[in-house]
Amino acid sequence: MDSLYQMISEHFAGVFTFGLGRYLIAAGLLSLILWLAKNWSDNRRIQNRRAGVRDYRREISSSLRTVFIFGLTSLTTVVMIKFGWVSKLDGPINGWLFGVQLVAIIVAHDAYFYWMHRGLHLKKMFKFSHLHHHQSRTPTPWAAYSFSPFEAVTEAAFVPIYLLFLSVIGAPIYGLVIALFLVHMIVRNVMGHAGVELFPAGWTRGPFRWMTTTTHHDLHHSHGNSNFGLYFTWWDRWMGTEHPEYLAKFDLAVGNRDAKILGGEKAAVLSADRAG
Ligand SMILES: [Zn+2]
Ligand SMILES: [Zn+2]
Q: How many independent structural domains does the chain possess?
């Protein structure tokens, strides 16, 4: 088993640096942007409540634990690749195939996430698996990886499961696709927890309305039993789990501060105005 030890020590630093770096850069950069553009971001806050120091502390410390668990899962994936249990595509990159693989893994992960997430919300599962993430009622970008150890494992399991599936159907994937997928995941993840609507006004009625906004996931944190999707809105629409006030709340977030103070009625007016 000498080679296994060598393999792990060879990849250990790289895997953990990539995981930790992804989290710190994405959450840190977004926090910095929101702070620099304070006027803009204050005006687009989704909730009136603010996260406290205890929230930040909990979100960061449990996210660091998740980085460690993700690192162990990545090492498992590296070992699986090295032993040939799953295969990776080497050689020159075919742009078309690369694009298809990237879209496929994102769409597959969105489906995995939706159903895993619904599972974690089952009465028997919730307390020990997902309550920790929902302690962030007003999430911040640092909540992106704020998971219980159980949830961290179920979140991380997607990549090895997907790679095993690809090897069963004989469709190996480029290593760079996996890396880009992981970068995309953390970027969308911190955006979903920003607490500030980052998408432009009109987004939920535009051609890309099937992409989730910050309000979409923020409503999941403040209400809990709707908006289970990650990147796309379609699973929530198909399954009837989209928050009934999603569009109005989005309009409220991208509207002005007066509208927020006035509350729901104004949001409805804003929605109607913009729809018309
Ligand atoms: Zn949840
Ligand atoms: Zn969340």
A: 1
Task: Judge whether residue 262 has pLDDT over 80.
Answer: no
Angstrom CA distances, 143 to 17, 59, 110, stand at 19, 5, 19
Ligand nearest to the CA of 227: 1
CA of 61 to the centre of ligand 2 (A): 16
Query: What is the predicted pLDDT for the residue at 14?
Result: 83
Q: If you measure from the C-alpha of residue 116 to the centroid of ligand 1, how many angstroms do you get, rounded to a whole number?
A: 10
For residues 155 and 147, the answer to whether their CB atoms sit within 8 Å is yes
Q: Is 178 exposed, middle or buried (0-12, 13-18, 19+ CB in 10 A)?
A: buried
Q: Ligand 2 mean position to 224 CA, how many Å?
A: 10
For residue 48, the CA-to-ligand 2 centroid distance in Å is: 18
- Cα–Cα distances in Å, from 61 out to 22, 28, 58, 64, 250? 15, 14, 5, 5, 30
List the beta strands (DSSP E) in 148-232: 173-174
Q: In this predicted model, what pLDDT tens digit does every residue of 148-162 receive, in sequence order?
A: 999 999 999 999 999
Structural domain boundaries enclosing 159: 2-275
